[in-house]
Amino acid sequence: MASLMKLRLISRRFSTLSSAPLRICVVGSGPAGFYTAEKIVTNQFTRVAQNERCSFFGNVSLGSSVTLAELREMYNAVVLSYGAESDRSLGIPGEKLPGIYSAREFVWWYNGHPDYRNLDPDLKCTDTAVILGQGNVALDVARILLRPTEELAKTDIASHALNALEESSIRKVYLVGRRGPVQAACTAKELREVLGIKDLSIHIQHADLCITPADENNRIRRRVYELLSKAASAGHARVLGQRELHFVFFRKPDGFLESDDRNGHLGGVCLEKTTLKGDDKLKQVAVGTGVHEDVSCGQHNDGIWFKLALKSIGYKSVPIDGLPFDCYKGIVPNLGGRVLADASQDHMQYETGLYLACISDDIDKGLFTSNPPKPGREGLVHLLDSRNNRVVSFDGWEKIDVEEKRRGNLKNKPREKLTTWEELLKVACE
After folding, report:
1. d(C-alpha 201, C-alpha 8), whole Å
2. For binding FAD, which residues are annotated in this chain's numbering (predicted)?
3. How many domains does the chain have?
4. Domain range for residue 139?
5. Do the annotations mark residue 135 as ligand-binding?
6. Are residues 104 and 173 in the same domain?
7. Is the dihedral of CA 416, 419, 423, 424 positive or negative?
């Protein structure tokens, strides 16, 4: 369902203490947009969109369907919750070699996003995959690659991804992190799920399992460490055909290597050993030691063979025409959710009526201005009609929900996702 919403525009009209009509537009393309609307109205996602004072506009793209400037003309406040839809770059040699994907692309592929249903990662050419990163997204990708497909078949994974995974040759996954187990960016919940995969052998170097008294005082980090330590102590006797998950700590990628047997394709990665610097145990940074090792594809007998690498190193926002943007950091400059027109001066200047998602305090403080009155929903409807933009209402969104669940029921799974824009729009507009 979420894949239909290239952009979600949720118009909120409510009364202030002065009884002046106030219109707010929430702009978002994923859970962030609905999360913000949820904060404004209620805790229940569906009730937000069904509220008579809330209007839902699906299949509307910021930039091509409507500009930010036009939204600001029509609404007293525009709240940006469109998330981070681009990938951070490692900035190392070989990063463009075929066989390297971002975790975002891979996640959207197996979740049935129409723009990525044809990603077609080659899961048959190697028995090993390397994931750079150890956060929750990295763990989720590892879980999809290693979980038995008979279990995945009972989930809402996209059918094209399930078919590819059923033919996958991957039996080993390496999760590579710059820092140690205490600093891993994952949560205990996500870690527990991947460690609990049936018949999975976990490999962790005991030398990497170090913890200080300061680390032990942090409950969340201590719990992650305990789970990893327990997994390492459980042993990993090799069983023919058994799937393996290797946690590799204190390593950072220094360059991707080209394959010897497949010209122009990924063959390996050069890793540099790291050490931690800094006093704060939870904010220590990993710095290179100058000691390198090649994690290769068939080039050394003791190397890790793989032709598939996934980068899970974080996302960055994309610039929007008319919106202040820090290209270096990949963020919209803001202070407490209020967008800054210019953050370089001693006296910071805010953009009027332009916010990021974290705005609850501003609502309470009455910082949203209600003058002059704005056309809001009616103005947006008129504008989109004049451009022949095919808008999907929340009723249409619910039709997609019902149809996906109906198709899923026929296959004994929660839902069968619609993975093309044409099919999504056809179902929504019937």
Report:
1. 42
2. 32, 62
3. 2
4. 86-315
5. yes
6. yes
7. positive
